[in-house]
Amino acid sequence: MRTGVVTNQWRLPVPASAGVFKTLPTVREKRFSILIASIFLLGTLILYCQALVTERFNNFIIFRTSWTHLVEHLPLYDLYPTAYFDYYLYHPSFPVLFLPFALLPVQVGLLLWMLFNSGLVLYAVHQLPATPKQKNIIGALVMLEVLNAVQSSQVNPAMVALMLLTVVNFERRNVRLAALFTCLCFFIKGYGAIVGILFLFYDQKQEYLKYCLIYGLIGTLLPLMVITPTELLQTYHDWFQLISSPEIKEDGSLFATIDAFRHLPYTASTVVDKIVMGIAFAGLILALFNTARAKDSRSRWLMAAYLLIWAVIFNQATEPPTYVIAVTGAVAILVMFSHKCVTILLLTILIFVTSLCPTDLVPKFINLIAVEYHLKSLPCLFVLLYIQSSLFFQSGKVKID
């Protein structure tokens, strides 16, 4: 099959160098793109004003104060109830990366932080190997999840943007940037680096690993700007101890959904949880194997979306704002590479159940059901299973790269 041929069954991807996705958008598409960007901007500004009025920007305070704690040689991973609630859960190097926002006055830093997160997602979406129309659709459909995460002053929008940019640069054979974005993901939230697994399906593996090693060493030692080597080792010890403890268990994962349907409190791991996790790892290995067999761009993008969803729904630390990662991956792959009927069905379920039902935009009784049973993860699971089956059948097809 020739590269770029569109069959009745699949809309097959074409390398960016072929120029298929470099066609200029129409005037209508430009206007729609400007409209989406304007809504992103307006929504972010409204949420910023709301945060100032309600003084609800705890995550930003956590990020900002982490730099102060680092400079003052205080433990990063202790509780500081007088400054903020919850634990600081991020990489020991993140306070240094956050420094540009931490040095600004709170109001200014918060505004730029929220704008940075929403803007970076839009930028990443427009780097996808999609038509201008598809990019606009993706941007519109992920908007609610992005703004939900921005409202919490979370880092998750920036995380999903960096994860997408990692894959984009893999596809462009720019392994230096792919390695940089992989490492940035890790130095914010460790699990974000899961997209780095995709290096297995590209050339220049050694060069990618070389740059990961370089960036990794630099990032790992970054806190030495302000603390001693002994303090750095203790900080890493504290971080590993915290992220592996039950203290950070949240109710946003698929495990919480399963426990809710079993009318059990989501407190400790059960035998069922361990079985589900075993199945999840088996599914992940199978998906990687089928991607390796397929050796085409579409399968690699399917695998990328699989990783974005998998890292969220099987993560005990998942919160509702984390779903911007899973939903962006799901929406992108459904819009770019799936059957039209499958796209409509799964996107409808995904947007309604995952993005709308947990909000006040639906009737109260629907919202209560969605919240009580933690339904946010289910549509993402459906998309994951769809990707799993697509990779399985795709691996037996004629290669297109």
Automatic annotation (TrEMBL):
Coiled coil: none annotated. Keywords: Cell membrane, Membrane, Transferase, Transmembrane, Transmembrane helix. One of its GO terms (cellular component) is plasma membrane. Pfam families: GT87. One of its GO terms (molecular function) is hexosyltransferase activity. The keyword Transmembrane helix applies. The chain crosses the membrane at residues 32-53, 97-125, 137-165, 177-201, 208-227, 271-289, 301-317, 323-353, 365-387. It is found in: Cell membrane. It is a multi-pass membrane protein. InterPro entries: GT87. Its main location: membrane. Belongs to the glycosyltransferase 87 family. This is Uncharacterized protein DUF2029.
